[in-house]
Amino acid sequence: MKTNSYAIVVVFTILIGSIIMPAIPGLRKTYGQTNGTSVIPNAESVFKSQSMKFTSSLAAHAIIMVLIPNEAHESLKDESHKLITDHNPYFIPTNLMIPQGTAISFINADAPWDTPNPHTINIKDNHGEIVYSTEVLQYTNSSEPKILDVGKYTMIDTKNEFMKGTITVTTGQQSINISSRSNSSNSSLILGGFYTPTNQVENKEDNDGGFQPGWLSYYKELFPKNGFSILSEYNFSYSTCNYCPYGYWPDNKTGNHTLIIYSSDEPFSVASNKLEGMIKDNVYI
Where are the alpha helices (DSSP H) in the chain? Predict the structure, then answer.
């Protein structure tokens, strides 16, 4: 797992003076609201709009973990039935708007059975010039957090060019002096999205005979134990495989999934290592 000195993970629930509100019953549970105004986009909004938009009120020392979901290597145009969903199929989120000073990191959850699915992500500016490229991200690996200048960008996989998304960096009220950033031993603000089966699946084994216990209730216990807060959840169904016995692609184990939006205030190196373990516990192959 890649670590570095940037202390900017997207964990934006810690705003001075903000109050965490209780859950709202139903599919959506929202915790990130302050004075009736949403500070952090909830899971339902992220799923339906395929976007995360943050204003300058986002904490300066924040890192957004952009998840590369399972089956992201499959084309939405040609193999859409193999994806977990057609909403945010390649990146969570597909479209990201952040204030200047917020960093981004990519984390690969595209499971390797039977074939490894490493990803390298380029970020290109309006002129098509590459301004940043991750290292090769193997399964569960995360990239070094990166702060971008104000502007509009495209994130694109170097191998699967259909894997695209956008990043917009707006002028923020706060700026970060790079020379004075705290190192990875200090706490950061980290936020991201995570897909999991909503219910337990019948087949919990991977293709090597290993056991994966992950599903929603499992993660609702595991996330807090690992120092993460679940900010919101949204349940959805996706079963579009006409020739599959149950309508969903077998590698996804189910057609019923949940998008979790989470946060953590642990150091990036600590939080990313814990995320690695939680991704490995997922049943997707």
Answer: 43-49, 216-225, 268-280
Distance between CA atoms of 248 and 29, rounded to whole angstroms?
A: 26
The rounded Cα 208 to chain-centroid distance in angstroms is 26
Q: What is the DSSP string of 76-120?
A: TTT-GGGSS-SSSSSSBSSEEEEETT-EEEEEE----SSS---B-
For residues 245 and 261, the answer to whether their CB atoms sit within 8 Å is: no
Structure tokens at 12: 């934006």
Higher pLDDT, 80 or 13: 80
DSSP 70: T
Strands 228-237, 256-264: pairing is antiparallel
Between 235 and 182, the more confident residue is 235
Round to whole Å and give the CA distance between 64 and 191.
5
| 248 residue type, one letter | Y
Lowest mean pLDDT among 18-32, 134-148, 158-172: 18-32
> What is the residue extent of each domain of the chain?
33-280
CB 70 within 8 A of CB 88: no
pTM for this prediction: 0.84
Write out the CATH class of domain 33-280: mainly beta
In contact, 247 and 239? CB cutoff 8 Å = yes
Cβ atoms of residues 103 and 145 within 8 Å? yes
DSSP state of 207: T
Average pLDDT over residues 213-229: 98
Residue pair 146/65 in contact by the 8 Å Cβ criterion: no
DSSP 142: B
User: What is the residue type of 273?
Assistant: N
Q: Residue 159 is encoded by which pair of tokens?
A: 């191998």
